[in-house]
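Example 3.
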Amino acid sequence: MRTFGAIACVLVLLPATAAAQTSLQIPLQFDFLNPGAKSLALAGAFAGLADDATATFANPAGLLQLGSSEVSIELRGTHTNTQFLAAGRLSGTVTNEGTDTIQGPFFGDTTGSHTGVGFLAGVYSHPSRQWVIAGYRHELARVDQTYLSNGVFQVDPVTHVSFRERPQEGVREVSITGYGIAGAYKIGPLFSIGGAMTAYTFDMNSVFRRFSTDGFFGPPLLNQELSRATQTGDDVSWAPTVGVTIGRASTRFGVVYRRGASFDFTTVEANNPVRTSVFRVPDTLAFGGSFRPKPPLLAAFEVTYIRYSRLREDFVTDQALSVGFPDNFTIDDGVEVHGGIQYAVTRWPLIPRFRGGVWFDPDHSVHFTPTGDPSFDERMSTALSTGKNQVHGTGGIGLTFGSHFELNAGFDISSTTKIFSTSLILR
Amino acid sequence: MLHVALGLLLALQAANAQQRRADSRTWYQAYADGRRAVQQGNWQAAVDSLEASKRAGAPKPGRRVPFYGDVFDDYLPDYYLGIALTNLGRYAEADRAFEAVRASGLIRPNDREYAQFDTQSKKAKTELLALGPSPAPANPTNAAAGGAPGGGAAAGGATAPPPAGTNAEVNPPATPQPTPIQPSPAATTPSTVPNYQPPPLQPSTGGSGRSGIVPRTPQPSPATPNAAVIQRTLSPKEEEAAVTAYLSGRYDQSVNILGVLQSGVTGSERAFFYLACSRVALAILGQADAGSIADARAILSRAGNPARFNADSRYISPRVLRMLGVTP
């Protein structure tokens, strides 16, 4: 009973720390891939290619390549697995009582799926061929995560007393959609500039709830909510994109800079005052090239620098405030490397274009620097240990139906993400 | 001061004009414009766009050529150029364009373009042969009667010389007749030039793997006129029209008039001088390829001593003269 009383006391003292852990350990997955099934199949290497309506987002300067006005629509399905610390004993020996049966950490998977019109654009090419204007809608990010953590068991290194993290349920929904106007102007036969101004809508609804347990070792009692924290946001923000392309069809290079939008969101925690913080979408700077060594063969690459560190202020630090260590949580900027290739079989009906690619996705999860509190450090370093570099494989096909209709399909698969896309182009 | 201001104004205007002429369209955009203009019957615009397309780094004509993105389409500039030129009455150029199509084998009897190609190419050839000695409306360089590589079934290869005593002998066509060759079995010998109907286009019997129109035996150059044919001479009126066109900045028109000099038509040395200048001017404006300058120098060599044209040279751009190797 003494032991139980001590444990119960510890459990009462843990909620704030536990809340920080469970909301931060679930990385917010952003899809910064360029829109369109063709681009997806070419591993997103599109900044230097930018030769269809999806250039409105990928690199507006490329719009001037279009031989005529066109409309493009994409249906994209995304399936994302994210690991989170779900249960287990991080220190001490399992007692095999109740839920204390797993030695070491146990990670659960939270799966988010979304299918919808990922991209829609209309491009008007002026008969002078000197300028182009376009409008588009693009789903920049869709996050839909739900998880339930049983609460890990640990042993205090000083008192050698076992304690348990409170079970928590988290529901996180983030939606960012861009509505933009893009234009491009031809400076010379080989040089074009383009830009876009996009109004992004932001909608965030996140709820983190803590529950009581059936005794110290028992399962969570989901009908006994002890506390809750919410993050909500509903905002609109503008952000620009500028790009250039240099070269012609045989060899072309492109550079594009996309400013990330910033949105206000509100955090409400049990006894803390309501806070208004800023959610900053990472900026993107991409350089790419495309080459057509032979008429049916096309190769493209793109190197993309993404300022993921913008997410830290305030989105990450806001979640770390309650544990008192906001400076110990960081996110590194990342450099993605994309490469894709396409081969067209012009003698076949529908002129099929077979595409494949690969791209490197650097780890951009939240990193943790130890605080000196052994139990907290143990829990957080374990919870945030799942972030890793990834390699995505991509592929797809494009078909042409007559002179006005084009159909593309593509996929992107990595160890945690599966994306499928179909797009139509009408000219 | 007034002169300086006027000079600046003129320079600015010239720069603007130059800028307007600069065509920043890609080859496929210019081609699409040209094709659209043909459909609309806007023949001159079609010619301008199609020629711009060929100048703008276009690939070899063909079927299912990559245009941009995933757009693969047929690139047949000479076919559309031939149609537009025929409708403009520039039969020699039209015939040359059609011959290029024929030589490429890109339009076969089963193709949707064939009927139009057949009709228009026959029309161009008929009109060309019927022109007689009247001023040629266009440059018949490398023209139908054996000018194109191999001629073609409907061209020199199938065109037997008109029988003695026909209109053709009295009023020879604008271009000299080639040395007679054995006519194709399918060819018919016209009784009179105005009523001449070219023979049907002959399908290919092999070679390219497509049953396209293939060139026949190479024909003699039209620059070697048949001695039996009366030699046409450029009239003074034509020469003055060409000089006026040149001095008005209408270099293409000047080339159109004087271009016949390259097809065996004789003319004054001054006419050759202005033809050379016109070719260089077009090259400077980007309306002709760099090879045009070499051609121009060759033409100038037929004009004799350039010093004889010092009076004319005062009105010629020093840049043009320098590119021709003439000291301004």
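The helical segments of chain A are 2-13, 15-24, 37-41, 55-58, 312-320, 374-383. The interface with chain B takes residues 38, 51-52, 65-68, 127, 129-130, 186, 188-189, 248-249, 292, 295-296, 344, 346-347, 351, 353, 398, 400, 403, 406, 408, 425, 427 of chain A (CB under 8 Å).
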